[in-house]
Fold this protein.
Amino acid sequence: MATIRDVAKRAGVAPASVTRVLGDYPNVSDDLRERVMAAVEEVGYQPDLVAAGLRRGYTRTIGVMINDILNPVVAKWVDVIEEDLRAAGYGVILAHSRGERDNDMSNLRLLHQRRVDGLIASFADDQHDDLVAAVKGLTIPVVLLDRQMGLDHLSAVVSDHEYATSALVSHLIDHGHRHIALFTGQPHAYPSRERVKALTSVLHERGIPVRPELQIVGRGSEGYAASALSSVLELPVPPTAVIVGNGNMSALAGALQELRRRNIRIGEQIAVAASEQSALATLHTPAITAVERNVVDLGKRAAAMILSKLATGSSRAHTIVLPTRLVIRESTDWTYRG
């Protein structure tokens, strides 16, 4: 790899002059700058951004920690955030936890070693004691993305999962359902906690017993959802309605495939709803009732929030709660009379 000495030799200047140009020092002549930059391109010199950042006190990079890249919503967040941060002159270091809380800790250590200037995080486990302690000790600005940790100094952008899930459960009860299954992610992540809380609360309010065996958690995949659905359908009293709470579209696909395998007709024998809007929910026949939210807005607000903190140095914390709405379709818009 080319070094500063290689650049200096090609430009015919001292290494210190190269350092002055690359470090944006004042009082550098246009001629010197042009010679050095031409030499940089010719020899293919790549600066050590970490070392340069240590000298300057910043690296112009932001860490983005995500829970599950297989989730199309998460992939959209990454795309939106990276685009907005790049436009503001920041690079992104992406860390993927794959739904494992131990990976949260190792990823956090990695980003700390890379000296990122800020962090946008959607942790696998936002309640893990060791993680909470580690985040509490960070000296860089942090913005939580659809997560909550109970730390007063952290800002967050979240969706109102409880509202939409409450509306969905009420809708199902109004249409004759008393046995409602919920497949969702691990309860130590904010969206899943909110969905479980909403289901439990509405059932209590309507005088309907809560059946814990109908609540199954796991990483959203076709296999997980198919297995979860198979297990609850084998119960002595199976559910008449199923909410696929994992945002990953694969989970919905797995549930639909299992129903097709069993020749169970959606909209006649069982109601199916999804906690995340998707093309599959819209295009399936019958169309699947789903919770809708502005995913792009969520990512953009998280990016804007971290950029604002970096620009102002503000440590003030606040949480933005973005709305959700229930889109009722044929899969649940019928009355169960069993």
Notes: The radius of gyration is 25 Å. The mean pLDDT is 91.
